[in-house]
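2.7 Reproducibility. Because tokenized structures are sensitive to small changes in the input, we list the exact sequence used for Reverse transcriptase domain-containing protein, including any N-terminal residues retained from the expression construct. No trimming or masking was applied before prediction.
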Amino acid sequence: MKKRLFLQTEFDILTTQQAEYLLSKSRHGCYEHGEKIGRILAHQLRQRTANQTIPAINDEQGSKCTDSLKINSCFQNFYQVLYTSECPTTPSVLENFLRSLHVPSIDPNIADSLEKDFSALEIISAIRSMQSGKSPGPDGYPTEFFKKFSDQLAPLLMSVFEESLSLKTLPLTMRQAVISVILKKGKSPLECNSFRPISLLNMDAKILAKVLARRLEGVLPSIISPDQTGFIKNRYSFFNVRRLFNILYSPSPPGVPEVVLSLDAEKAFDRVEWGYLFSTLERFGFGNKFISWIRLLYTSPIAAVRTNNNLSPFFELKRGTRQGCPMSPLLFAVAMEP
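Resulting structure tokens (single pass, no recycling of outputs):
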């Protein structure tokens, strides 16, 4: 019986991989068909517009709001509170806590390699690796524009990045983001916390984050435990699924109970405290310059919320990793590790 269940699990994993391939293939087909604006694409556009409409939302007192401007204000208030730090901890407290833990350190030679200056070729490679067809940031310039003119733009971007590091702040347009919200499956459409925030960043900011992410992703497998499979290069979620079934269907001592516990961290990305994140990077042995690049991404960022074609005033963020930023999932993995 156990063997049959184990084989069924293996089969489910294979069929999942096949489904992902077919989904990718179907998306490619829709892209090719999109130039003709066929019935499938037209239906998808209508459905997407309908899904983005938020007809009503509950405010902080639980009263239903149907006015589009009030709905937008509700979301702005929700995210302004969510992105406000709740536990400002002193560096000494964080240092004492992290020193008490057994945390691996990256190889000093690898740490030094992360510190090297950017090159135009590295920036061009990062631009060309980015996915096309994504929504642009507030300035309206899409990925395709930067790919088309990558050779001309790379030296200019490199100068902007280096000047920003010297000044310890990014230009205003690189600190701005517009938050679009997407309703989570199975959640109440009347609650602000039922929506997933996606930060639309300007491409120059995403390119900087992409360059840093490509450097960081090669290091993480050496310092992140095998238990963490999300967002780590060459690791997949079904690794842990397979491990779980191996444990469940392996012989266990008689009378020893087995328990499977599934936990979910609410608004996990949005609650990452920056002070803790920077201290964790230091504890792992990352160099001062690389950490300074990370700090640069999180120095005085601002955001506005877009709902029903209404844009809220911009407000300052005090914590969280932006969903939509190439660095966000990698930094979340680092924050979770200790």
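The two ends are 39 Å apart (CA to CA).
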